[in-house]
Amino acid sequence: MxxxxxxxxxxxxxxxxxxxxLVTGSTALGVREVWAALVDAPSTDPGVEAVVRExxxxxxxxxxxxxxxxxxxxxxxxxxxxxxxxGPSVMGVSSGAxxxxxxxxxxxxxxxxxxxxPDAALMVAAMGGALAVLALVMFADRRLGDGVTLLIxxxxxxxxxxxxxxxxxxxxSAQALQGFVFWGMGSFGGxxxxxxxxxxxxxxxxxxxxxxxxxxxxxxLLGDDHATTLGVDTRRSRRRLLWITGIVAGAVTxxxxxxxxxxxxxxxxxxGMFRTNDHRKLIPATVLCGGSLALLCDLIARSDFMGGSLxxxxxxxxxxxPMVAWVLFSGKRWSxxx
Amino acid sequence: MVKLRMNQxxxxxxxxVGHPGVVLVKDVxxxxxxxxxxxxxxVNGSGKSTLLRTVLGLYPPxxxxxxxxxxxxxxxxxxxxxxxxxxxxxxxxxxGAIDVRTVVALGRHPWxxxxxxxxxxxxxRVENALTSTGTHxxxxxxxxxxxxxxxxxxxxxxxxxxxxPVLVLDEPTAHLDVVNRVVLVTLLHEIARSLQRGVxxxxxxxxxxxxxxxxxxxxxDRTLWSGTPSEARASGILSRAFAADGLRFDPSTSTLRGTSx
Lengths: 338, 261
What we know:
The structure holds 2 protein chains of 2 kinds. Chain A is mostly helical. Chain A is 74% helix and 0% strand. The longest helix of chain A is centred in the first third of the chain and has 35 residues. The C terminus of chain A is likely disordered. By secondary structure, chain B is α/β, with parallel strands linked by helices. Helix content of chain B is 32%, strand content 27%. In chain B, a hairpin with a 4-residue loop joins strand 11 and strand 12. The chains are: A mainly alpha, B alpha/beta. At the A-B interface, helix 10 and helix 11 of A face helix 2 and strand 6 of B.
């Protein structure tokens, strides 16, 4: 029973942050008011009900889902590439997704005549961009097989994607550009309640895959050759896990913008808290930490003493960058590689 | 495929190893019996690791057959192979903070279900592997806190827990001091005898191999010579394999010495 306690504590923290996310905002609401709006109590002010149902709840759920999805994606990437600094935003995956989004948002006139719903196009383009980058990184990993070189390859891909985005920006209309720049700052508030499923399905799929993956991920810690002698089809396992990483990173990026650092930092938080690299413990810890961290970042971004509307990416970077430094300086202890 | 005789776990026949277009070792033919420890020796770059990795199925052979427990290795799935042959390869895996017992339990991978949940039998095999490799005292330490010698023994324990008839070890003594080298090879010998496993290892440590192994496989001139240590001494193969200007093999001490004029 004792080993469950930290998970319960972390789960309670997540619930607390979720509730805080519901009650804080431009109009502060009491827990009772929020509850009344949720259960559709007859006394509820229709304005409050609209705010809770159409703004607060979707935003809190989006933050929770995005955090969980990015964190699991980051953990998969760190174990698969044996690199503690791997993560969707670090290795160019978010940039690839951004390029996909830019193509849809900025090069709109090119494909506007095609009968594709814009939201679906955004989603598919982001996933396609993320998967294309992951395929490139995987190819580089097989050829180079070195941690630092691989990070540099990711960086190069990021630069390349950014350059292509700049080209698209230069040729797009002012209105489209404004929308794209706003999206690029990152926000959990852009997903309406009827679009939540678009994010929930990829994240839920990722969580299901994650539940079944500790055995393989632990074997992969020994290195590909040892994992093969233990009966793991390493190529297939890596490919499957990277597919799901690309899909979830693409979906989150399409819905919330390129969120920096959460995917990379969260697995280290989980390792630090639970002092283990055993994926059976790490996966639930990473899921809970990811949800909490995303909610916390959003709370800070929306809090009054920060002016009430800080760009989300500014907050994730302000919190994330020192944490990366901590990962580097604390050295080998919790990370999967030096 | 070769029909195995009694006690034979592994039979290799006419094997050629290397990479496409590059033959490293040809005429590889030998057998490994239960309870036997065989050592592959040869100079750097002679193809020891490639040979071991081919036996493990990590590299495809260029020609020839590998028979393990009456099955053709080439016909076995990755999963089936992992139940016949276990391995400890070079380099210390960077596992991070995982306790030794969990690392050893990774050896049960081929025998557990999707979730990797350990049965009573699995737990028993893990404890037995810890005991037979003398790593029980380390069980609650984390892998990254171990010394190189300890880490190597824990890796061995993981391979023992895998419960395969054949164990392959690539340079298990590479980063160990002279005491730990002898301790490890003696341990391998005990495990081979008591658990009736066949152990195939590669080493640079000629003296330990000659003293403690049942069979010596010498890679020389891109071919494999196979025999007992005393046959190796008598045949002069080691002097030829490790020939270098001003060096000769001294059969009485199993070491290389300078030639006195």
